Amino acid sequence: MKIQYASYFFLIFAFVSLSAPSRAGVIRGHIDKRDTTTTPAAYAMAYVAEAKMGTTADEHGDFSLTLPSAYDGKTVLVEYSLIGYTTQEHRRTVAQNELTAVSDSVVLDFSPIMLAASYVTADGTDPAKYILSQVWKTADKNRKRVRNYSADINYTLATHELPMVTHILPGFTLFMGKIAAGFMGVGPLVDYCTKHEDLRASVSFHRSIKNGVRKDSDHQILEISENVPKNVQKNIMSVSGKVDLYGLLYGNNNAWGRKFTRRSDFELVGSYNYGDWIVDVLHWEDPNSDATATIHVLEENWGILKVQVGRGEEAVQCEARDIGGGIFMPVSFVMRPALTRIKAKDIPAFIERANVEIKDKGMRKRAVKLLQEYQSRGEDFNPYIAGRFNVRYAGVE
Questions:
Q1: CA distance 80 to 63
Q2: Which pLDDT belongs to residue 337?
Q3: How far apart are CA 241 and CA 227, in angstroms?
Q4: b/e string for 51-84 if b means 16 or more Cβ within 10 A?
Q5: Which residues contact 320 (CB under 8 A, 6 or more apart)?
Q6: Are residues 136 and 129 in contact, defined by beta-carbon separation less than 8 angstroms?
Q7: From the CB of residue 1, how many other CB atoms can be counted at a distance below 10 Å?
């Protein structure tokens, strides 16, 4: 559980899906969740076990899953899931491209997690501490199982409404953020996002791990917003290539994870069945802030099935499937950085400021309209960055 990668993303984008290429098969659709009302199932999973591939829905519940061209025209079984809701399976016919794909609509019903109040450990230790001790005890073994593998990875990035606030943020805030981005080697990317309309990009690359040594190759930009400079494109590819995806669950820095779980009071909040196995749900939250972490642990081999860490509306989450064999682990993150948050009570002042300080007439009109919409709803305004890694692992030992 390499949670520090979450911090890595938050730092890179301190201020700051896509259409699949036509050469592959496509499944697309919309996922809702239903409890007292029906709302979009943001970041729900769509997974095809036959291909060991899947994706996460975006914040509106929409998804598009690209499969190899060999699946074009075939009928496959798609599993739709979201923590705390019933899993559904639908048979879907894979289309040749996004334009010919028929959208599927799915509603997941609320399914409360079975509370594990009766969980008892042999020596009377706290159940959460016992479960975490087993995770770290077996982490090296689980990590060694994937010291040799290969993966085809597709990474998508989207930013939303960032330029609207960068025109009215304090100059010092922008300056310090850009300095930090420069040190991390992504200065052109951050600078571009603060000056241009929403950025959307999709990158693919191949990763091979031999004896724990990583090599990335075949980086390609599949799709990107128009007229993005070459140095910004290079930054986008470098960000996707730096992340050790499986390291999010079983990285080399397990000592960090052990230290975090020792000093943080996780609670065992529930358990549920995952196939023939039992999954325990551990949760932690900081009483002095809105920071949280949730871990789903598979008792079969004390492997981590799912992780979600976040602060408020910001979240980084990853999920492993079929831990014992072929491994599929999508990662998604959503960030609404604190530096760009405008409290609802402060919006009138920012509207006045925008009318004075934004010289571009079109940008000024859009910024004011946007702020007024949030003001009418009584909501804080905060743009976001969203990204997803869709991974197909092969050759796992």
A1: 11
A2: 58
A3: 22
A4: bbbbbbbbeebebbbbbeeebbeeebebebbbbe
A5: 249, 303, 304, 305, 306, 327, 328, 329
A6: no
A7: 27
Cβ neighbours for 342, distance < 8 A, ≥ 6 positions apart? 165, 350, 371, 374, 380, 381, 382
Q: Over the stretch 73-93, which tens digit does the pLDDT of each residue have?
A: 899 999 898 877 888 999 998
Tell me how far apart the alpha carbons of residues 193 and 187 are, in angstroms, rounded to a whole number: 10
Structure tokens at 319: 């999920």
Length of the chain: 397
Task: Indicate the residue type of 364.
Answer: R
Residues of the chain with pLDDT under 70: 1-24, 97-100, 112-118, 146, 163-185, 242-254, 256, 275, 312-313, 320-330, 336-340, 393-397
Give CA–CA dist 350/292, Å, rounded: 30
pTM above 0.90, yes or no: no
CA distance 282 to 132: 9
Which pLDDT score, from 0 to 100, does residue 254 have? 64
Res 383: pLDDT: 75
Task: Report residue 388 as tokens.
Answer: 């997803």
End-to-end CA distance of the chain: 20
Q: Alpha carbon 114 to chain centroid distance? A: 26
Token pair for 358:
């934004």
Question: Running DSSP on this structure, what letter comes out for residue 366?
Answer: H
pLDDT of residue 10: 34
**Which residues lie across from 318 on neighbouring strands?**
307, 331
How do 104-109 and 25-34 pair as beta strands?
parallel
Reported as type and span, the H/E element at residue 220 is strand 213-224
Q: What b-and-e string marks burial along 188-227, b requiring 16 or more CB atoms within 10 Å of the CB? A: bbbbbbbebeebbbbbbbebebeeeeeeeeebeebebeee
CA distances from residue 39 to 43, 107, 140 in whole angstroms, order as listed: 12, 9, 40
